[in-house]
Amino acid sequence: MANSFIVSLLLSILYIASASSQSAAPVGSPAGNTTSAQEFIKVSCNVTTDPTICVDSLSPYASSIQESPRRLIFTAVNVSLANIQSTMTLVDNLKKMKGLTFIESGLLSSCAEMFVLGLRDLTTSRGQLDDMYKSKGPDFKQHFEEAKTSIGGAEYNFFFCNYEFDQRKEVVKLRALVIPTVVNVSHILSNTIDLVDKFANATG
Ligand SMILES: *[C@@H]1O[C@H](CO)[C@@H](O)[C@H](O)[C@H]1NC(C)=O
Ligand SMILES: *[C@@H]1O[C@H](CO)[C@@H](O)[C@H](O)[C@H]1NC(C)=O
Ligand SMILES: *[C@@H]1O[C@H](CO)[C@@H](O)[C@H](O)[C@H]1NC(C)=O
Ligand SMILES: *[C@@H]1O[C@H](CO)[C@@H](O)[C@H](O)[C@H]1NC(C)=O
C-alpha cells in the first residue's frame, strides 16, 4: 500500500517533470527575472530552424519579452522587420558602388524589389497577428494561417534573391557581400514562422 503510493507518487513526479521539460513556456518565474527570460527564449528557440540565430537575435530583448509567448512572437516579427530594413540599406549602398557590371546592378535591383515586397508582407503579418490575438475559434485559426502565409511570403522573397545570385555563379565578390545577410534574414524569418506556429496558441 505505502509502496504503491510511493511508486505512483514517483511516477507522477516523473510525468510532471517530463511534461514541463517538453512544455515550451516555463511558467511561474517572477517577472523581471531576465535569467528565466533568457531561459524561456532558449527553450522556445529550440523548436526553430536555426536556434543559434534565434537566441542571438531575441536575447537582447529578454527583459521586454519576459516569458510571454505573445511578446516573443511580436519581438521576432519586429527583429525580422529591422533585419529586412538593414538588408535594404546594404543593397542600396552597394547599388551606389562604382564599376558594377550590368549583371551585378541587375541582381541588386531585383533583390531590392524583392525586399520591398518582403517588407510589405511582414508588415501585413503584424496586423494579422493583432487580429489573431483579438479572435477565437475559426477566426483565430484563419488569422493564424494568414499571418504564417505573409511571413512565408516575406521569406520567399529572400529565397528568390538568393536563387537569382545562384544563377550567376560568376558574380563572386558581390555575392560575398550580399548573400550571408540574405541567408541570415531567411533564417530569421523561418524562425519567426516556427515561433508563430508553436506559440500562437499559448496564453500570456
Ligand atoms: C531566475 O530564473 C532562473 C532560471 O529559471 C532561476 O534559476 C533563478 O532562481 C531565478 N531567480 C530568481 C531571483 O527568481
Ligand atoms: C534543445 O533540444 C535538445 C534536443 O531535444 C535538448 O538536448 C536540449 O537540452 C534543448 N535545449 C534547450 C535549451 O531546451
Ligand atoms: C514592435 O514594433 C511596434 C512598432 O514599432 C511597436 O509598437 C511594438 O511595441 C513592438 N513590439 C514589441 C513586442 O517589441
Ligand atoms: C545575422 O543576424 C543576427 C541577429 O540579428 C546578427 O547578430 C548577425 O550579425 C547577422 N549575421 C549576418 C551575416 O548578417
TrEMBL record:
Keywords: Signal. One of its GO terms (molecular function) is enzyme inhibitor activity. Transmembrane segments: none annotated. InterPro entries: Invertase/methylesterase_inhib, Pectinesterase_inhib_dom, PME_Inhibitor. SUPFAM superfamilies: Plant invertase/pectin methylesterase inhibitor. Residues 1-19 form the signal peptide. Residues 36-195 form the Pectinesterase inhibitor domain. The keyword Protease does not apply. Belongs to the PMEI family. PANTHER family: PECTINESTERASE INHIBITOR 7, PECTINESTERASE INHIBITOR-LIKE. This is Pectinesterase inhibitor domain-containing protein.
